[in-house]
Amino acid sequence: MTPTTDLRTHYMGLDLANPIVASSSPLTGQIDTLVALQEAGAAAIVLPSLFEEQIEHDAMGLHRGLDTGADQHGEVFGGYFPELDSYNTGPDRYLRTLIAAKNELTIPVIASLNGTSTGGWTHYAKLLEDEGADALELNIYLIAADANASAADVEDQYLQLVAAVRSTVEIPLAVKIGPFFSSPANMARRLVDAGADGLVLFNRFYQPDIDLDQLSTTPNLVLSSPNEMRLVLRWVAILHGQLEASLAATTGIHDAEAAIKLILAGADVTMMTSALLMHGPEHVTTVLDGLSHWFTEREYRSLTQARGSLSQKSSPDPSSFERTNYMANLASYSPH
Ligand SMILES: Cc1cc2nc3c(=O)[nH]c(=O)nc-3n(C[C@H](O)[C@H](O)[C@H](O)COP(=O)(O)O)c2cc1C
Q1: What span, in angstroms and rounded, lies between the C-alpha atoms of 175 and 180?
Q2: Pairing assessment for the beta strands 269-272 and 246-249 based on DSSP bridges
Q3: In contact, 23 and 271? CB cutoff 8 Å
Q4: pLDDT digits (tens, 9 = 90+) for 276-308
Q5: How many CB atoms lie under 10 A from the CB of residue 254?
Q6: Residue 272 Cα to ligand 1 middle (Å)
Q7: pTM for this one?
Q8: Which SS3 state, helix, strand or coil, does residue 269 take?
Q9: 9-331: which CATH topology?
Q10: Whose CA is nearest to atom 17 of ligand 1?
Q11: Per-domain residue ranges for the chain?
Q12: pLDDT per residue over 242-284, tens digit each?
């Protein structure tokens, strides 16, 4: 009988039992669903993000509270502490979730910070490290809408933020970015030079919608579709072997086939949210069974053997990841 493929993988120095990671979502923000994800076989989880806005809002509330106390009742300042505490719900609750997750789970817990600017809020990275986060994911969700800001300005903003967070923590640091750079490969390299141990490719930017009845803009979250993994596939394949960093694939990974393709392209881990929201945490088991079956049937000893075997560097047709394949692609269209 063929021995079962060893699905273990490394992600930024973390030893994982397999490559399936539950990415940030409401499922990773509650202990019952976190436990269900672990039981289903998820090898690690990323907590939902703590947002720069939450931290800044919290800090403003704290200052307001302190000012009010000082102006009006300096002598009874001590009496304001319980109230100040309640200003702190965002980050405070986040730390409690992290602590509970660490207590309940045996798999690595990756905390997530989400923001765009350097500033006091980045010190929360240290708090997350101190409370036991095994790694940190920094989601830079930046829409470059200022026509006066050049690409270089925007890229500097990313790099400064990564350097700022890197300087506050020693745990592994992943950076989650979108695909919209003029030179994604060069940007990826500079993010790694700035201190990223891993890149999470790619963030999904949620697009606004217009409500024609209310004549207003409205958020309208649409879950990903499986085709969206193709953009990720291209860039994982191109970047594999080019960087001293782990690669995590995210967006559009709904089933075992997608995860297999991304591993062959060069991903160290494959992350899932939409499919887990649609099918529940137990979907992880289905995906893992599919992975194990596929690799074992083809007699791979380990994922390490398979990883990157169809990256751009190793592919029998490296041009398929670049423009040279453009015309062939168009010609391949068939109405059936
Ligand atoms: C409801 C919901 C909440 C999410 N919250 C976060 C978040 O807090 N931080 C983050 O980095 N990504 C967040 N994401 C993005 C996911 O982690 C993931 O990157 C994205 O959904 C693409 O992966 P998928 O195609 O598997 O869904 C969220 C996604 C959804 C659908």
Answers
A1: 15
A2: parallel
A3: yes
A4: 999 999 999 999 999 999 999 999 999 999 999
A5: 22
A6: 8
A7: 0.89
A8: strand
A9: TIM Barrel (3.20.20)
A10: 24
A11: 9-331
A12: 999 999 999 999 999 999 999 999 999 999 999 999 999 999 9
